[in-house]
Amino acid sequence: MTACFALTLGRYPLHFSDLADFGWAALGWTAMEPARYDLLHNVIVEIRLPRVLAAGLVGAALATSGAAFQAVFRNPLVSPGILGVLGGASFGAALGILWFGNGALVQILAFVMGLAAVGAGAVIANLFGSASTVMLVLGGMISGALFTSMLSIVKYTADPNDQLPAIVYWLMGSFSSVNLPHAALAAGPILMGVACLVLLGRALDAMSMGDDEARSLGVPVEGVRYGVIAAATLISSLSVALAGMIGWVGLIVPHFARLALGPLNSRLLPASAMLGAIFMILADCIARVVAHAEIPIGVVTELFGIPAFVAVLRHARREWL
Q1: Local confidence band at 271 (pLDDT 50, 70, 90 cut-offs)
Q2: TM spans, by residue (predicted)?
C-alpha cells in the first residue's frame, strides 16, 4: 500500500485507478490507448518504480542491520556504521567520482571500500590477541576514522567546481540516479542478507542471556556473531552503494519496532525490515515532492530521525535497562 501510494506522487499526478488501469493493460486483460500506455509506462515503470524499490530495499537493509548490530553488541545506540562501513563506502564513492565520474564504478568502489573498512577494523581487533565485541567496536572506530580522513583528502583534491559538489551531493544520499537494473541487481543480495539475519533471530535471543547460557543451549556463539556481522555489513555496504549516505534509519527504526513488539529478535528483525522499508519510502516521497527541487534523502531522514529518536529515547532506555 505504501509503495502504491508513493507511485502516485510526483510532478505528474496519478490516482490509484491509473495504477490499476496500467496494471491490467500491462497484463493484457484490458485495452489502453498506446499513447497513454507509453506515458504511464514512462512515469510508473521507468521513473518512479526504481526509486520506490530502491527506497524499500535500502530502508529494510539499514533497519535490519541496525537491529542486528544492536543485538550482537548489546548496545541500543549502535548503528550500521559502528564497524566503519559507512566511512569506507563514502571514501570509495568519493574516489570513484574523482577518478571515473558518476556511474556504476562509483557504486562498485563504494561497496568494495565499505567491506574493506570492516575488514581493516577486524584486522586491527585481532592484532591484540582476541577479537571480542569491544575490540571489534574499537577496531571499527579506528578504521572508520582512517577512511573518513582519507575522504577528507579526496574532497580536498577534488575539482571545486565539478567533482566536489558531486561528492557532497552523493554523501547526502539520493535515489535520483537509481534505475531498474541497479535496483534489481541489488535486490537479490539485500533480500538474502535480510533473510539470513531474520533466521538468526532465535540464536540472537539465546545470546542475549549471555554467551555461556547460549552455548549451553547449543548455539554456536562465535559463528552466529560473525555471521550476523558479515550479513549486516554486506547489506549496509550495498545500501550505501545504491543510494549514498543515509543516517538514522538503522538507529531509530529498531527502537520503534522494539516499542511495538518487544525485545525478542525473532520478531524484532522482520518488523524492523518492514518498518524500515515503509519509513524510507515515505521519506523519499517527502524528499521529491515537498519542494521544487529534490531534497537529499539523508537530510530528510536526519530532520525526522533526530526528534523521533528523542521521543523514543525514554521508552527505549527503559526497555534496555
Answers
A1: very high
A2: 52-73, 79-101, 108-128, 134-154, 183-204, 224-256, 268-289
